[in-house]
Design goal:
Helix content: 55-70%
Low-confidence stretches: 1-30, 322-331
Number of strands: 5
Largest sheet: 5 strands, antiparallel
Structural class: alpha+beta
Shape: globular
Order of helices and strands: HHHHHHHEEEEHHHEHHH
Radius of gyration: 24 Å
Distance between the termini: 61 Å
Length: about 325
């Protein structure tokens, strides 16, 4: 009976998915080939993953309905799916960049709802994002300033020090010798591409996983303000000022608790953000190092500490007061 029910689910879902793929691809390709190609990836590489999880979910519901519940088997089925799809799906996200990477980075921060196998893969999107071409970077700078890279900067390292969902960062030197970090967006039209990705992702999720539409709403809200680097420069300045007032920012005569890149306001445009270069560890690596130090003080591994903190959060509904956490773990 279970096998029959599975075949019924497959017969109902497969035709609908096939029809969506055929009609959607034809319509999108006619109006926008680039959007069509990205939507094709969504439907052929991402949708099957959602269907696989949905199928197992329905299969387990039928077992419970028939009083054939088997928790050990269910755990094994989920684990098998995680191991099968996590790496390949994250590889697709990395290849597609844009909203795919943004969604992955968002999910990587939610170990409370994302299985560990997926979290481990998703965290590679924090730093292992492929860089874009030098030509694209130079074109963006040319468009932003109306000048060639050599006319704007004394030196410019074409090899990026980091790549993210919508842009990448390069080391450079200004004409006056100031060392800077230059954050460059991935070309004209990138914003519209990401908005189209979210739009079509929502359409797919409404059919296959309606409860997940809220996740895409959150991702869309996050990147809605990220495409104007002038706004980011303004936020950097505001944070620096607030930290300085609170006594956390350093000065010429003492070392601060933290430091924030100082934007060169007159050089910041919608697509290019120029900041004074700061030497130091990657933020994620630095936080991990602090966590490992805190864990050692308690005789735990970092994974054990994270698990205990998550359990406390789920039980109490809120984290400990910051002062207690700081004194006990980092003081």
């Amino acid at each position: 009976m279970l096998r029959t029910a599975g075949r019924i689910i497959t017969r109902r879902v497969a035709p609908a998915t096939g029809a969506t793929l055929a009609v959607g691809s034809a319509a999108f390709y006619a109006s926008d080939p680039k959007t069509a190609s990205r939507t094709y990836v969504l439907l052929t590489e991402m949708a099957p993953v959602i269907l696989a999880y949905r199928f197992v979910e329905k299969k387990q519901q039928i077992r419970r309905y028939l009083n054939h519940e088997n928790p050990r088997l269910e755990d094994a089925e989920w684990e098998s799916l995680h191991n099968k799809y996590a790496k390949s799906t994250v590889d697709t996200m990395r290849r597609m960049l844009g909203s795919y990477v943004k969604l992955g980075q968002f999910l990587a921060l939610r170990p409370d709802i994302v299985p560990q196998v997926w979290t481990d893969e998703l965290r590679t999107l924090e730093s292992a994002v492929p860089a874009q071409s030098t030509e694209l970077v130079h074109e963006t700078i040319q468009r932003a300033y109306g000048k060639n890279v050599s006319e704007v900067f004394a030196t410019f390292d074409d090899k990026p020090v980091g790549s993210a969902s919508i842009g990448q960062v390069h080391k450079a030197t200004l004409k006056d010798g100031t060392r800077v970090a230059v954050k460059v967006q991935y070309g004209a039209g990138n914003e519209q591409v990401m908005r189209n990705d979210i739009k079509h992702g929502k359409e797919l999720f409404k059919w296959l996983a309606p409860e997940q539409v809220a996740v895409l709403d959150e991702v869309e809200a996050q990147f809605a303000t990220e495409f104007d680097y002038r706004r980011e420069a303004s936020h950097l300045s505001a944070v620096r000022n607030n930290l300085r007032k609170a006594g956390f920012l350093g000065s010429w005569w003492r070392r601060g608790v933290v430091d924030i890149p100082e934007p060169i306001s007159e050089m910041c445009t919608k697509e290019v953000l120029v900041m004074k270069f700061l030497e130091g560890d990657n933020l994620v690596d630095g936080i991990r190092a602090l966590g490992e130090r805190a864990a050692r003080r308690q005789g735990l591994t970092l994974d054990d500490l994270k698990r205990d903190m998550l359990i406390n959060f789920e039980r109490e509904g809120y984290p400990e007061p910051y002062s207690t956490v700081w004194k006990s773990n980092f003081g």
